[in-house]
Amino acid sequence: MDRRLAAILAADMVGYSRLMETDEQGTLARLRTHRIELIDPSIEKNRGNIIKTTGDGMLVEFPSASDAVACAVEVQNRMYRRNADVPKDQRIQFRIGINLDEIIFEDGDIFGSGVNVAARLEQSADAGEVLISGAVHDQVTSRLDLEFHDLGSLSLKNLSQPVQAFRVALDAPVETVGDSATPDGSTRVVKPTIAVLPFENMSGDPEQEFFVDGLTEDLLTELSRRHELFVISRNSSFVYKGQAVNLREVGETLGAQFIVEGSVRKAGNRLRVTVQLIDSQNDAHIWAERYDRDLDDIFAIQDEVTSAVVATLPGRIEASQQEGLTRKTPSSFAAYECVLAAKVLHHRSTREDNVEATKLIDRAIEMDPDYAHAHAWSGCIRGQAWGYGWCDDPEDMLAQCEAAIHKAASLDDNDADVHRLMAAVAILRNKLARARYHQERALSLNPNYDLVVVQMGELLTWSGRPKEGAEWIEKAMRLNPHHPARFWSHLGRARFAAKQYEQAIDDFAHLPMLDAVQNAYLAACHGWLGNAEEAKKHADAVHSAQPDFKIDNVVPTLHYAEDADLQHFVQGMKKAGLS
């Protein structure tokens, strides 16, 4: 028999049978998601080896007690955050026990009293807890920055001797998690607060009231998906239903700087929905839009208008706040405002702006280390530097990008931005199947987020489905009419891959400036069309922007799943005279 000292982690899911009886398919899908995104990666990161799994639990061996405890703490803390938006009776929660002892290893399984102790500690733990034996505590108490509560000697089932046990102090349960407060009572991250007032039924038709209220509630629900916003609850905003209000007073009462209000009017078989966004502090109109639709399918109209509004509003809020930032000195920036300014610089897509964006995003994280959105955008900005070659050590920059995004995921697993960026990193690593998983998770979290939708188009283009990719990119443009100019570049690449060269040329023409790779795509378009003069012009522009341009240097930055798609671009560049 092979005997060796090992740390054993036993875990199971609390209330598994009850959840399976209520929703078998949904429970299995959610459990699989937690395994793929959180549990298995944490085990791998901490050098764990899964010995066996059951429907509701697992047994894992670690080379050290510190690795086992670090894994357990990460899983439980992140599960607290994942459950923040889940009703109590639907939450997936785990209990974990850890022991350190000499274990028998045989035929891929493990045996011995040390395994039994871990299993019994797990059964004694409450939902969301980690219990460790005294042997584990002796090893980790001086190595890990954690607190432990001494539970004394526990008499465990089927064990003749009591076991000294400790409970690991974890993050506060989700019921008590709130904004991080500073000594003066303020919060470190002050997100823009928005209230959606009940829309007014201007039709004189009481039967339209259900549509009007439904539209308002849908807007509230969808805006709440945006983790960079704080949305006032329905119960608070619906107090004002049917009232003539002073928006400045409403803003002060609800603590909302931004207010959405609107109206619905029916005339014959036409429905008109008007929406406006107002800054309550100065009573200024930031944005207004009118939606006229044929009254064929009332629910389709509700979905369409909701999608359009929630895709546009966050960008308009950011734009209005960006104007305010220009009047502030950098020393007065709060963490959120640093992120906001960094986003502006990022979207300009120049090396100099990327450097400044990196400084600002690092400053935001320094102000608030637990600000998940800042970590996510740190990864995005560093990913841009890697993608454009604006760094001396590409591998180190990509590692920084991945570390920032994983940190964001550890702080907030339910942020669409986090999964969008995890998908982007997977694309950079040419792991397109993994990218598809995170991309679909991001879409499920926020299907109306233009940056998520456009990236779906990019992923489909890389995956050999450019016509579908172009449709997704065009959808993103419709969702947000104020989209970044780079969307046109994504559309041009998709159209090129689909061999729609004329359309691709038109798409690239919308860009205010062209970089070397964009000019290379245009050169390839003209190369395939046989436009020698235009092809040469863009090939010359490539060398003007990047004198040492080589096709062999561009190929590693491309992520085509099909070699035929890659060769299509390479041959197009060669036809244009590039080498």
Task: Give helix % range.
Answer: 40-55%
Oligomer: single chain
Q: What are the low-pLDDT stretches, counting only 5+ consecutive residues below 50? A: 174-189, 325-332
The total strand number stands at 14
Query: In angstroms, what is the radius of gyration?
Result: 27 Å
Work out the helix count: 23
Query: Strand content of the residues, in percent?
Result: 15-25%
Distance between the termini: 62 Å
- Architecture per CATH nomenclature, i.e. the level-2 architecture of the domain at 2-175: 2-Layer Sandwich
The average pLDDT value, as a whole number, equals 83
**What's the CATH C level of the domain at 2-175?**
Alpha Beta
- What is the CATH third-level topology name of the domain at 2-175? Alpha-Beta Plaits
Strand-pairing-aware structural class: alpha/beta
Largest sheet: 8 strands, mixed
Q: Which overall shape is indicated by the principal axes computed on the Cα atoms?
A: globular
Say which CATH homologous superfamily of the domain at 2-175 is assigned: Nucleotide cyclase, GGDEF domain
